[in-house]
């Protein structure tokens, strides 16, 4: 027994010595393991962002690798098929997402705050769009993108010859108002009202024959999102007014909205694959990019510079001035929707991922994000305003036309107003450029040059569009939280005052003491005295 005890003591001492010797090594191993765990945790938290950015890079590499294989148009279509699936899935959830989120958002806000938030949002949207238009016109005069491009012609660059038919400015604005009030809600989910023109032969009194252009209303393919937005907002306010009777329908729209967001979270994991094939197929489709960039390089540079200044400096400054918070940290949580916007060129298709990321990563209140973002995706088009104004200045310089102050003012107002009705789909802004050109009296046949580089400029256009919506939602969320805190502070102060007053009243008021005395006497008295008191 003594021998075994000595052996145990020696073993303990040895263990102690080993423990002291191995301590630093274990600490080093623990530190390395902690770093690995931290890195793994970061990757898990930001897996979607990393995969999306990797998808864009892989798409560029895929397009560059396959470009030399001389694929036929059918093979390019097969290559773009996974990307087409992504666009179809995102467009599938736009209708339930817009309608349900706006109904539940409008119903969850009281009328006063709804009007206040709506007013601030409208002011923000109009203000930033006007700033964007002014920036584009100023850059157009500084860079002069159309000065050296006078010798360009569309056939030489292999550009599309078809230019959209131009509409009268008045008819364009009337169509905008008509689409706000759709005659059929079901048809509004897939059709939009548009004015076309029919030429009629007229005999004049002098015997001459003249052609007269008569506007004719038609329905064209495409979701009338303006009409759906207005209807959903008004329906939400009406349900709120109903009170108890409208609660069931509000709960239905809330549940529908949450279910749609679950679908969006599933679709988001397919985004990196879809983006890779969308970008790759677009690079393969390009014909002669070197000639295109050298010929229209100044226009592309001026447009992208305008987007960079507005999206990278002006909008973050507005956010910082309103909230005193770091705008770039806010935008860091939105890398996935911004990459989706870059790849899809569609504000509407980016809406599902934007709502999901702005709520989960940036903590924006659901009532704010689901109320403002669908409206912003339809109304707020800062990037489109820059693109349209730059195109108008470019075509004016191309035709050696010096713009006077009246024409510049017309460009600013028309671009701001027409960007409201611009479709949130790829190349949606090209149609509105035709309206601007008609308004200032410039020919529309040079629009084929804009169409040629639209696929490049449209990517940064969409990124700036969705960035403006997101920062607007962040500003409104900050203002809403600030008002809520102020109200809570006021309520606390009122409660404290009320408690203090009640105490002093109990101590000093003769009525209260008299009341207590009467009650005490009646309780101690006999039944007869009670009757007499009564």
From TrEMBL:
<dbReference type="GO" id="GO:0015183">
    <property type="term" value="F:L-aspartate transmembrane transporter activity"/>
</dbReference>
<dbReference type="GO" id="GO:0015293">
    <property type="term" value="F:symporter activity"/>
</dbReference>
<feature type="transmembrane region" description="Helical">
    <location>
        <begin position="260"/>
        <end position="279"/>
    </location>
</feature>
<feature type="transmembrane region" description="Helical">
    <location>
        <begin position="121"/>
        <end position="143"/>
    </location>
</feature>
<dbReference type="InterPro" id="IPR036458">
    <property type="entry name" value="Na:dicarbo_symporter_sf"/>
</dbReference>
<dbReference type="InterPro" id="IPR050746">
    <property type="entry name" value="DAACS"/>
</dbReference>
<dbReference type="InterPro" id="IPR018107">
    <property type="entry name" value="Na-dicarboxylate_symporter_CS"/>
</dbReference>
<keyword id="KW-0813">Transport</keyword>
<dbReference type="InterPro" id="IPR001991">
    <property type="entry name" value="Na-dicarboxylate_symporter"/>
</dbReference>
<feature type="transmembrane region" description="Helical">
    <location>
        <begin position="222"/>
        <end position="239"/>
    </location>
</feature>
<feature type="transmembrane region" description="Helical">
    <location>
        <begin position="47"/>
        <end position="69"/>
    </location>
</feature>
<feature type="transmembrane region" description="Helical">
    <location>
        <begin position="89"/>
        <end position="109"/>
    </location>
</feature>
<dbReference type="GO" id="GO:0042470">
    <property type="term" value="C:melanosome"/>
</dbReference>
<dbReference type="GO" id="GO:0015195">
    <property type="term" value="F:L-threonine transmembrane transporter activity"/>
</dbReference>
<keyword id="KW-0007">Acetylation</keyword>
<keyword id="KW-1133">Transmembrane helix</keyword>
<dbReference type="GO" id="GO:0015180">
    <property type="term" value="F:L-alanine transmembrane transporter activity"/>
</dbReference>
<dbReference type="Pfam" id="PF00375">
    <property type="entry name" value="SDF"/>
</dbReference>
<dbReference type="GO" id="GO:0015194">
    <property type="term" value="F:L-serine transmembrane transporter activity"/>
</dbReference>
<keyword id="KW-0812">Transmembrane</keyword>
<feature type="region of interest" description="Disordered">
    <location>
        <begin position="499"/>
        <end position="534"/>
    </location>
</feature>
<keyword id="KW-0769">Symport</keyword>
<comment type="similarity">
    <text>Belongs to the dicarboxylate/amino acid:cation symporter (DAACS) (TC 2.A.23) family.</text>
</comment>
<protein>
    <recommendedName>
        <fullName>Amino acid transporter</fullName>
    </recommendedName>
</protein>
<feature type="region of interest" description="Disordered">
    <location>
        <begin position="1"/>
        <end position="32"/>
    </location>
</feature>
<keyword id="KW-0597">Phosphoprotein</keyword>
<feature type="compositionally biased region" description="Polar residues">
    <location>
        <begin position="510"/>
        <end position="526"/>
    </location>
</feature>
<dbReference type="GO" id="GO:0015813">
    <property type="term" value="P:L-glutamate transmembrane transport"/>
</dbReference>
<feature type="transmembrane region" description="Helical">
    <location>
        <begin position="299"/>
        <end position="318"/>
    </location>
</feature>
<keyword id="KW-0472">Membrane</keyword>
<dbReference type="GO" id="GO:0005886">
    <property type="term" value="C:plasma membrane"/>
</dbReference>
<feature type="transmembrane region" description="Helical">
    <location>
        <begin position="330"/>
        <end position="351"/>
    </location>
</feature>
<keyword id="KW-0325">Glycoprotein</keyword>
């Amino acid at each position: 027994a003594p021998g075994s005890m000595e052996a145990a003591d020696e073993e303990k001492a040895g263990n102690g010595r080993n423990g002291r010797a191995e301590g630093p090594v274990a600490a080093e191993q623990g530190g390395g393991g902690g770093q690995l765990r931290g890195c793994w945790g970061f990757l898990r938290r930001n897996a979607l962002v990393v995969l999306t950015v990797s998808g864009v890079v892989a798409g560029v590499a895929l397009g560059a690798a396959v470009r030399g294989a001389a694929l036929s148009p059918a093979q390019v279509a097969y290559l773009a098929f996974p990307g087409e699936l992504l666009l179809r899935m995102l467009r599938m959830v736009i209708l339930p997402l817009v309608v349900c989120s706006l109904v539940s958002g409008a119903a969850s806000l009281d009328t006063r705050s709804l009007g206040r938030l709506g007013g601030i949002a409208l002011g923000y949207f109009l203000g930033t769009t006007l700033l964007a238009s002014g920036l584009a016109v100023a850059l157009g005069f500084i860079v002069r993108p159309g000065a050296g491009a006078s010798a360009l012609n569309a056939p030489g660059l292999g550009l599309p010859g078809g230019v959209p038919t131009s509409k009268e400015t008045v008819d364009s604005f009337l169509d905008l108002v008509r689409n706000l009030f759709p005659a059929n809600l079901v048809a509004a989910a897939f059709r939009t009202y548009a004015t076309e023109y029919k030429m009629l032969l007229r005999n004049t009194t002098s015997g001459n024959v003249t052609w007269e252009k008569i506007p004719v209303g038609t329905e064209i393919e495409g979701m009338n999102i303006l009409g759906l937005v207005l209807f959903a907002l008004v329906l939400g306010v009406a349900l709120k007014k109903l009170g108890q009777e409208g609660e069931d329908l509000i709960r239905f729209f809330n549940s529908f909205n949450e279910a749609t967001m679950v679908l969006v979270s599933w679709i988001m994991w397919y985004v990196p694959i879809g983006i890779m094939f969308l970008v790759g197929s677009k690079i393969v489709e390009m014909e002669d990019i070197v000639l295109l960039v050298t010929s229209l390089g100044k226009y592309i540079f001026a447009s992208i510079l305008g987007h960079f200044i507005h999206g990278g400096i002006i909008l973050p400054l507005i956010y910082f001035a309103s909230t005193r918070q770091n705008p770039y940290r806010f935008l860091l949580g939105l890398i996935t929707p911004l990459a989706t916007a870059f790849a899809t060129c569609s504000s509407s298709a980016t809406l599902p991922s934007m709502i999901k990321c702005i709520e989960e990563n940036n903590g924006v209140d659901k009532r704010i994000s689901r109320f403002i973002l669908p409206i912003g995706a339809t109304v707020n088009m800062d990037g489109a305003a820059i693109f349209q104004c730059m195109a108008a200045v470019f075509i004016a310089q191309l035709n050696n036309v010096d713009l006077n102050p009246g024409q510049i003012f017309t460009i600013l107002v028309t671009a701001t107003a027409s960007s409201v009705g611009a479709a949130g789909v790829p190349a949606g802004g090209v149609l509105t450029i035709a309206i601007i050109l008609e308004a200032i009296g410039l020919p529309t046949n040079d629009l084929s040059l804009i169409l040629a580089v639209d696929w490049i400029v449209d990517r940064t256009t969409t990124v700036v569009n969705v960035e403006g919506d997101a920062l607007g939602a962040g500003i409104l969320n900050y203002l809403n939280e600030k008002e809520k805190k102020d109200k809570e502070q006021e309520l606390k102060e009122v409660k404290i005052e009320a408690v203090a007053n009640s105490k002093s009243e109990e101590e000093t008021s003769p009525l209260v003491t008299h009341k207590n005395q009467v009650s005490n006497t009646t309780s101690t008295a006999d039944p007869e005295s009670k009757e007499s008191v009564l």
